[in-house]
Specification:
160 residues, alpha+beta, five-stranded mixed β-sheet, two-stranded antiparallel sheet, 5 helices, globular
């Protein structure tokens, strides 16, 4: 059986926070605000994995009011979400990601983000696509107030 998951995540850009995208620390004067490390890329992938098998959302497993999840690495979140998928007998066929960022350029980091995600999930890098686009200076993303990521994942069971 083949299942598809989709998710979108966005976080506000602020001073005095690290900018981590796809598990990669990117040099920037601004970082993403959130309860965990606010990695919108890994959050989108993790939630898409959960959604692919109707397991709930990130807030179900990682509430933003818990001391246990405060400052948590999104690498751990992604790995734990994928473990739930694996435990149900499914594996990743591919991941297609789009990062929405107006002023922070993603293309110099695209390969490192793909490599990071592949390593976290122990999958081939060819299964991870990372694209980037802007919002043409429209909306909160276009004004440089936030970054967002959208993920689509295709999973299949062991028989596929």
């Amino acid at each position: 059986m083949i299942r598809i998951g989709h998710a979108w995540d966005t976080h506000k850009l602020v001073k005095d926070r690290d900018l981590i995208l796809g598990g990669v620390k990117i040099e920037s004067e601004l970082g993403l605000l959130g309860h965990s490390d606010a990695d919108v890329v890994l959050h989108a992938v993790a939630e898409a994995l959960l959604g692919s098998l109707a397991l709930g959302d990130l807030g179900t497993f990682y509430p933003d009011n818990s001391d246990k999840t405060l400052g948590m690495s999104s690498k751990i979140i992604l790995k734990e979400c994928y473990d739930k998928v694996l435990n149900l007998g499914y594996h990743i066929n591919n991941i297609d990601l789009t990062i929405y960022s107006e002023f922070i350029k993603i293309s110099p980091h695209r390969y490192d983000i793909r490599k990071s995600i592949a390593k976290i999930l122990d999958i081939d890098i060819e299964k991870v696509s990372v694209k980037a686009t802007t919002y043409e200076r429209m909306s909160f993303i276009g004004r440089g107030e936030a970054i967002a990521a959208e993920a689509v994942v295709l999973v299949s069971d062991e028989r596929s």
